[in-house]
Write a structure and sequence with these properties.
With 79 residues, the protein is mostly helical. Helices cover 73% and strands 0% of the residues. The radius of gyration is 14 Å and the shape is elongated.
């Protein structure tokens, strides 16, 4: 259940707004515990998983819209 909540949180956070502290506060857990449980459930770190989500969102935006790469990067929260 927390895994689903964590993925939804990550899915809607922009890169410039995402912080593990905020996610763990949202889930009411420590960063160490969350990272350990997340890694055992997914086989990857939360940061790697989050970056993968960003890449997928960027790919979908580029595929489905006339946005330029620069516009997509800003939309995702990159500077």
């Amino acid at each position: 259940r927390d895994h689903i909540r964590a993925v939804e949180f990550m899915r809607w956070c922009r890169k410039d707004e995402f912080r593990m502290q905020h996610l763990c506060r949202y889930l009411a857990t420590s960063e160490e515990r969350f990272t350990r449980l997340f890694r055992s459930a997914t086989g990857t770190t939360p940061a790697h998983f989050y970056n993968r989500l960003l890449l997928e969102r960027g790919y979908e935006l580029l595929k489905a819209s006339p946005m330029a790469v620069k516009e997509v990067s800003y939309e995702l929260g990159f500077r």
